[in-house]
Amino acid sequence: MIYIQRRAIFSAAHRLANPSWSDEKNQAVFGHCANEYSHGHNFQLIVTVKGEVNPDTGFVINLVDLKAIMDSEIIQHVDHRNLNHDVPFMQGIMPSTENLAMVFWQQIEGPIAKHGAALHCIRIVETENNMVEYYGE
Amino acid sequence: MIYIQRRAIFSAAHRLANPSWSDEKNQAVFGHCANEYSHGHNFQLIVTVKGEVNPDTGFVINLVDLKAIMDSEIIQHVDHRNLNHDVPFMQGIMPSTENLAMVFWQQIEGPIAKHGAALHCIRIVETENNMVEYYGE
Amino acid sequence: MIYIQRRAIFSAAHRLANPSWSDEKNQAVFGHCANEYSHGHNFQLIVTVKGEVNPDTGFVINLVDLKAIMDSEIIQHVDHRNLNHDVPFMQGIMPSTENLAMVFWQQIEGPIAKHGAALHCIRIVETENNMVEYYGE
Amino acid sequence: MIYIQRRAIFSAAHRLANPSWSDEKNQAVFGHCANEYSHGHNFQLIVTVKGEVNPDTGFVINLVDLKAIMDSEIIQHVDHRNLNHDVPFMQGIMPSTENLAMVFWQQIEGPIAKHGAALHCIRIVETENNMVEYYGE
Amino acid sequence: MIYIQRRAIFSAAHRLANPSWSDEKNQAVFGHCANEYSHGHNFQLIVTVKGEVNPDTGFVINLVDLKAIMDSEIIQHVDHRNLNHDVPFMQGIMPSTENLAMVFWQQIEGPIAKHGAALHCIRIVETENNMVEYYGE
Amino acid sequence: MIYIQRRAIFSAAHRLANPSWSDEKNQAVFGHCANEYSHGHNFQLIVTVKGEVNPDTGFVINLVDLKAIMDSEIIQHVDHRNLNHDVPFMQGIMPSTENLAMVFWQQIEGPIAKHGAALHCIRIVETENNMVEYYGE
Questions:
Q1: Domains of chain C as residue ranges with CATH
Q2: DSSP symbols for B101-116
Q3: pTM of this structure
Q4: Cα–Cα distance between B77 and B72 in angstroms, integer?
Q5: Which residue of C9, C94, D75, E55 sits 20 to 30 Å from the alpha carbon of E79, by its own alpha carbon?
Q6: Rg for chain F (alpha carbons), in Å?
Q7: Chains C and B physically touch (3 or more Cβ atom pairs below 8 Å)
Q8: Which is it for strands D130-134 and A39-51: parallel, antiparallel or unpaired?
Q9: H or E element, residue C67
Q10: Parts of chain D with a pLDDT under 50
Q11: Mean pLDDT, to the nearest integer, of C73-95?
C-alpha cells in the first residue's frame, strides 16, 4: 500500500456567519471572519490517494488522472470564486475549512474509486497557520 | 546603509473590474479575476526600510516600531476585508497588486521617516507565482 | 471526525548536555548541541485537535480559543527564552525536541478537552531538516 | 512512543518508460515523463523513525546516526545521479516516486533497527505538487 | 515605475562538463555535476518586468500575457527535458544556471517589449541553496 | 554581469542588550530580546556574488569555492554558538541582525575577491518575518 499526494491551489473569498444569528453574535463567534463583504485566501488542497502499485507503470494512480479529477470536480468550481455565493455543492453550507474538506471528499471519492484507487485524506491549508484534515469518517 | 525588512500577512478579498467597461470587456481583460462575488488571497506584505545603524542599539529602526506602523496604517484596514468595499484609502482605486503597492507606500512613508529611517521598497506577494515591488518613483 | 491544525512559532535557546556526564561524553553524544553557551532555533509548533464539527459554526474548535490556549500554556513560557533556564515546566528535563513535544502535550491536553475537542498530535519543527511528532502515548 | 523525522535532499534525473512497451504507448501513459533524454527533480526524502525516548539523551535516535544511515544507504547512491542508469538497488525497477519509496525502505529499515528504533515512514517530495508516502506494508 | 514578477517551474536534467576537457578535469572542476548520465532539478524561473501602471487596468502587464510568453518561449522547451540534448536555444552552451539566465533573457526580452513593458530581471532558483540573477548587462 | 547566490543556515543563540544601560532601559528598548539567558534562531545567510561568466565553466564562481569560504569564514564560527560569547569576530559588537550582516561582509569580501569575483550582498533571514540586507557601503 502506497499513499500518493497531489497538491492544487485555489484563491477564493468566503465569509463565516450563521444566517440564523444576529450580527452581534456572528461578530462574537466569528470575529473578523464575519465581515460583511468577505475576505479571502490562497487555499492549498492536498489530496491523498492510497492503493497498490501497478507493476507496469510504477503508479498507484496516474497523476494526470488525479489532477483531472481534482480540477473538474473541485478547482474549477472554487478557484477565483466566492464560496458563499458561487459554488453549487456548497449551497447552504457554512464555508469553514472543516466543511470544505468534508464536501470536497464527496466530490472526488467516487471518481477516484473508478481508477482503482481509494481516497485517503483531504487536507486543506487555509493560511500558514491554519490547516484541516479529513479521512472520510 | 543597511536595509531591513519586515513581513506581515493579510487575508483579503478583491475583484478586478473597470466600472466604466462592459461585463464582456471586463471578462476579456481580467478573466476570472472579474467574477462578480470576488475571490481572495493571503497577501504577504514585505516592507524594506533603509538607514544607518544606531550604535547604541544595533538597529536601523526598532522592529517593534516598524511593526506598529505597518499594523495601524495598513494591516488593520485590509486584513479580513474586501479591498473593493472596505478600505478608506482604496476608494475609487482598482485593487490590483500594483496599485496596492503604490497606495501602501503613501500610507507608511511619512510615519517611517519620523523614526529617522527611509522607506525603500513595498513588496506584495499575491500568490506563490505573482509578486510586485514598488520603490516610490 | 475532523482534524484541525494551528501553527505557532517560538524562538528559543537550548543546550543538550546530560549533567551527570563528563564534558567529553557530552561532546561525544551531543556534538555541537552541547556547546556551553547554548545555541537556538525558530521552532514551529503545530497542534492537531480532533473532534466533530459543530453544525452552528462549522468548527471543531474555535481557532481563537485554540490559539489562546497555545499562547498562554506554551508560547508565553518558551518564546525568546532559554529552554534550560527559563521554563518552569521544563525544570530537570533535557530540552530535546522529543521531550518538548511530550511536555507540551501535558500543558494543553486538559485545556483543549474543556472546549469539547481532543488533542491529537504535537508536532515540532526544529529546523528545515529535523521534526518530531507525539500522539500522547 | 515518539516519531522523529529527518529530511535530506537529492537532485537526480529519471525517465519513466516501460521497456516492454512501444514509444507511442509510453508517451500515452507517461507523457513528457517519457522523454528520451530524461528530466530531473530536487527530491526531498523525509524519513520517520519511531521509538521510545532514551532518558539519558532525550533522543529516540541520535540524528547524527540517522543522517549517516540516510547518507550512506540512499543519498550517496542517488544524489546527482540518473535513477535509471546509476543506482545499483534500482536496477530493473521503474523509477517512479512510489517505487523509490519502497526501495528506500529496504535500504534503511535494517540499519535503523540496529540503533534500537523502528522505521515508520518514507516520504518523498518530488515537486511542490507531488508527494508519496510508504509505511512498509 | 512598478516591478511585477511571475514565477514558473520546470523540471529538467542537465550535466556540467566541458567537452574539450578530459574526464579527470571535468570531475575536478564540476564534481558530481559532471556525472555521465545527468542529474536534475526542479528549477524555479522568476521573471521581473517593469513599467508604468495602465490606469484602465491597474496592470503593468497582464499576467495572462506574461505567462503565455514565458510558457511558449521558455517553459515548453525546457520542462521535462534534458538541457544538454533537447533545447534548440541551448545548443553548444554549457547549461550552468548562469548561462540559462542569459539565454532566457534573449528568449523573452523582445516579446515582453511588444506589450509595452520592459524585462528587468531573470532569476533562476536551482535548489534551496543555489540561485542566479541576470539584469541584461 | 551575473549575480549568483548561495544560502547557508546556522542555528545560534543571542541576546540584545546594551551593557552600558540599566536592565529597565534594555527591557524598554529590546523587549524580550533582552532576556538574560538568551534566545535563538535558525538564521539563513544568503551571499550574493557578482562577476562575469567564465566561458570554460559557465560559472561566475565555483559554488564549491563559495561554499568553502562561507563555511570556514562564517558558519564554523557561528553555527550552534552563542553570538554574544563564542564568536571572535563579534567581540564587543551587539549581535543585531544588522551588525551580523556588516561583520560577515568583512569576513568574506577578501576571500571572494581572490577568486576573481566580487561580493555584492549579505542577506540574513532571522525569522519568517525579519530580514536584513547589506551591500557593503
A1: 2-134 (3.30.479.10)
A2: HHHHHHHHHHHHHTTT
A3: 0.97
A4: 8
A5: D75
A6: 17
A7: no
A8: unpaired
A9: helix C63-70
A10: none
A11: 97
> Which pLDDT value is given to residue C30?
97
HSE, side-chain direction, 13 A CA sphere, residue C27:
5
What confidence score (pLDDT) does residue C58 get?
97
Q: Closest chain C residue to A133 measured between Cα atoms? A: C3
Grid coordinates standing for F121?
Answer: 550582498
**Residue range A18-23: average pLDDT?**
96
Q: Give the Cα separation of B124 and B87 in Å (integer).
A: 17
Q: How many residue pairs from chains C and D have C-beta atoms closer than 8 A?
A: 54
Contact present, D101 and D130 (Cβ < 8 Å) = no
Q: Which of D41, D115, D121, D126 is catalytic?
A: D126
Which amino acid does the sequence have at B33?
C
Cell 547557508 belongs to: F8
The whole-angstrom separation of Cα F12 and Cα C38 is 8
Q: How does pLDDT run across B81-96, given as a tens digit for each residue?
A: 999 999 999 999 999 9
CB C21 within 8 A of CB C27: no
Report pLDDT for F49: 98
- Is D52 catalytic? The answer is no
Of D3, D56, D63, nearest to C133 by CB-CB distance is D3
Segment B3-24, tens digit of pLDDT? 999 999 999 999 999 999 999 9
- Return the pLDDT at B115: 96
Q: Which chain B residues have a beta carbon less than 8 Å from that of F134?
A: 2-3
Phi/psi region, residue E46 (left: phi>0; alpha: psi -120 to 50; beta: rest), is beta
Reduce the DSSP state of residue A7 to 3 states and report it.
Answer: strand
With contact defined as beta carbons under 8 Å apart, do A79 and A62 qualify? no
Residue of E nearest to F53 (CA): E98
Burial A22-53 (b: 16+ CB within 10 A, else e): eeeebeebbeebbbebbbbbbbbbbbbbbbeb
Q: Which residues of chain C have a CB within 8 Å of the CB of D48? A: 133
Mean pLDDT within F99-112: 98
